[in-house]
Amino acid sequence: MNRRAVYSRGGSPAEVLTVVEEPEPAPPERGQVLIRTTAFPVHPGDLLAVAAYPGAAAKPVPAGIEATGVVEAIGPDTPVAPDVKVGGRVSVFPQPGAWSQWIVADAERVVAVPDELSDDVAAQMLVNPLTAVMLRREAEEHLALGYDGVLVQTAAGSSVGRLVTGVSRFHGLALVNVVRSEHGAAGLRERFPEVPVVATEHPGWADEVRRAADGRPVSVAFDAIGGKLAESLLDLLTPGGKLISYGLIAEEPISVHASTLVGKSLTLRGKNISRWLSEASPERRASDVATAGQIARGLRDQFDVAATYGLGELAEAVEHAVRPGKVGTVLVRPW
Q1: Chain segment 270-306, per-residue pLDDT in tens
Q2: Domains delineated in the chain
Q3: What confidence tier does 250 reach under pLDDT thresholds 50, 70, 90?
């Protein structure tokens, strides 16, 4: 049998996600790869998709988009990526229905896992690194960044935030990290002692960011929160600056008067990994996936695991994934 996580309506993921049993999948056809899943991550985006599902589904919707596992079979005459072979370890994204014991994946979405990476890292080696790559590309479109301009990012202690910090250091980008609490700031300083960190629990946190920028303009801001925090970032930006919003943690909307955007010639742009999939050329996607693998190898110590659950503990895993103060990604091992 194949155990799979599904949902039939939108709502609280802990309430609407269920685990069903299905027959084991048939052998893969041409263009397909059969994978026995060993671990998958619970991403915030996965949970948003469940919560926002409109109405009721005619049949259960498989959950999840990323997983790692072992190749059990390859369809006849199927071209595969380098080092993808029967018995080899692979990761797959985007794969609808990745939260499953078995996956029949499109071969073009399957990537070999380097031998030196653990399953814990392999389960996270695509979505989060690709998000960091996407954000860096957006930031580097601003002419000041990499010269005198400074990058500011919120949720800097998150899985994506830590990768953005590592990538920024590698590329020599000046960065100021912003987190919610002084406790989180202390932990981030231990990881990256040379990168300034500011906690928004301090009333004057915006002035602390300005002091950390040391007179340089704040050219670009990454924001995974939204709401009032995003509004504060717009105030911090230099004329001609860009705010890149990629998360939906805050429930309230971003409220900004047109005079703020017009008067400072600001750019407010939303980005997400789904848009990357639809906008990037096949060549760009292949290049970015290769870069994601390099990030996973080079920053493997930043791929923290908050906790690991079994598939039968999915509700607990979902609750942990949205817990405030969580450090790392929640993983599920389906066997």
Answers
A1: 998 888 888 889 999 999 999 999 999 999 999 999 9
A2: 2-125+303-333 (3.90.180.10), 128-274 (3.40.50.720)
A3: confident
**3-state helix vs strand vs coil in the chain, percent to 5:** 35, 25, 40
CB-CB contact of 332 with 310 (8 Å) = yes
Residue given tokens 């802990």 in the structure block: 14
- What lies within 8 Å, CB to CB, of 22 at 6+ separation is 1, 2, 3, 4
Cβ–Cβ under 8 Å, residues 138 and 277 = no
Q: What is the DSSP letter of 142?
A: S
pLDDT the model gives residue 162: 98
Long-range contacts of 190-195 (CB under 8 A, 24+ apart): 191/162, 191/165, 191/302, 192/165, 192/166, 194/169, 195/165, 195/168, 195/169
Closest CA to 39 of 108, 106, 116, 126: 126
User: From CA 276, how far away is CA 255, in angstroms rounded?
Assistant: 26
**Sequence-distant (≥ 6) Cβ neighbours of residue 302 within 8 angstroms:** 159, 162, 163, 166, 191
Q: Residue 269, CB half-sphere, CA atoms under 13 Å: how many?
A: 18
